[in-house]
Specification:
The chain has 11 helices and 7 strands. With 336 residues, it is of the alpha/beta class. A 5-stranded parallel sheet has the order 4-5-3-6-7, with helices on both faces. It has a two-stranded antiparallel ribbon with strand order 1-2. The longest helix is centred in the middle third of the chain and has 25 residues, at 184-208. The radius of gyration is 21 Å and the shape is globular. Mean pLDDT is 77; it is low at 1-62, 68-79 and 83-96.
Length: 336
């Protein structure tokens, strides 16, 4: 975390050189340089170039290189995403259809006035955001891996994302949890910063480039964790009002007693935070894990109603779960 200032300063040197190329990715292959429509004094965010210059060195990151390579490949007529079939039309405007998926304005949580990232609210995205939620050891990551391979085989460009994967925040969260006793709201804000960085610099650019983004957990896990630790739901809802509404969200519902056996088979020990040990539920880690997971499951039952989550029986074999997910996702994408 101490290197953030140097990373931020280094980003300024590459912004000017990478700006035009980034614009082509951000504008789904239209071939136009990125332009800031929000002049000082407008109701928008001001100079967006300044926003990106003041962030981490996005243009040197793996995601930027991935999108650039995919865009080049897409112009050769390769995949269904990342610019395939998405060039400029005869009138010079950007295409409204990338790789068979229609471009549209994204949906944001929060109110019309305050929801979303205000300087990106009027963008168009051609990709689709699909979320796989579930508790520790529910099989989320396995399903993400399987679906990535399967969707790529169908011709879709796929990007994976998940919690604590921000290049400037993610490692700091892991180190802080190992070495520091964090307050509940402090940890909540830490995770929100990680998510915000990925949303702005990874998820949104990928969606604009026509990718199918598979998210291994999303804001729902963070909100559920906050609630069971005593934070009001309204506080978490306001905190994540800038988030994109996913196109599909699945929750792998697994019995806590099944989960605990999977955890031991996976790593022979229980995670401190995933067991709710920081909450003082029980001195016995096994009991704490079971009770904590039961509380999370109840909270997801509430989130299901509010956020339209698709509940999947995660107690079944991996292949059976995957077959159902694959069928639903491919059917949705074929009509997108």
């Amino acid at each position: 975390m101490g290197d953030f200032a140097s990373v931020r300063d280094a980003s300024g040197a590459v912004v000017a050189e990478a700006h035009a190329a980034y614009g082509r990715v951000m504008h789904d292959g239209a071939g136009e340089d990125y332009e800031d429509d929000d002049a000082p004094g407008d109701s928008g965010a001001g100079d967006i170039t300044e926003e990106y210059s003041d962030s981490h060195a996005y243009y040197d990151s793996d995601i930027y290189r991935q999108l650039a390579v995919a865009e080049d490949a897409g112009t050769a007529g390769g995949s269904r995403g990342a610019g395939a079939g998405g060039g400029a039309d005869a009138g010079g405007g950007s295409s409204s259809n990338v790789g068979g998926m229609k471009s549209r304005k994204p949906k944001w949580y929060g109110t019309k006035k305050f929801g979303g990232l205000h300087y990106l609210r009027d963008i168009e995205i051609a990709g689709r955001l699909i979320v796989i939620e579930g508790p520790d050891a529910s099989g989320r990551s396995t399903q993400i891996e399987l679906l990535t391979t399967q969707l790529e085989a169908e011709g879709y460009a796929v990007l994976n994302t998940g919690l604590t994967r921000s290049e400037i925040i993610g490692q700091g969260i892991l180190e802080a949890k190992r070495n520091i006793s964090l307050g509940v709201r402090t940890l909540a804000m830490f995770y929100a910063a990680d998510f915000a960085d990925q949303l702005e610099h990874k998820i949104i650019p990928a969606l604009q480039a026509g990718y199918v983004v598979l998210a291994d957990r999303y804001i729902y896990t963070l909100m559920a964790r906050n609630t069971v630790r005593g934070i009001r739901r309204s506080w978490s809802g306001n905190l994540y009002s800038f988030a994109l509404v996913p196109d599909m969200t699945f929750y792998l519902d697994v019995d806590p007693y099944v989960l605990v056996h999977r955890v031991f088979a996976k790593r022979q020990s229980l995670d401190y935070y995933e067991s709710g040990a920081d909450m003082g539920i029980s001195k016995n880690m096994y009991d704490s894990f079971i009770k904590y997971q039961q509380r999370l499951a109840r909270e997801f039952g509430i989130l299901e109603q509010k956020y339209d989550l698709n509940i999947i029986n995660g107690n079944r074999p991996t292949d059976a779960i995957n077959a159902g997910l694959k069928k639903q996702i491919l059917r949705y994408l074929s009509k997108a």
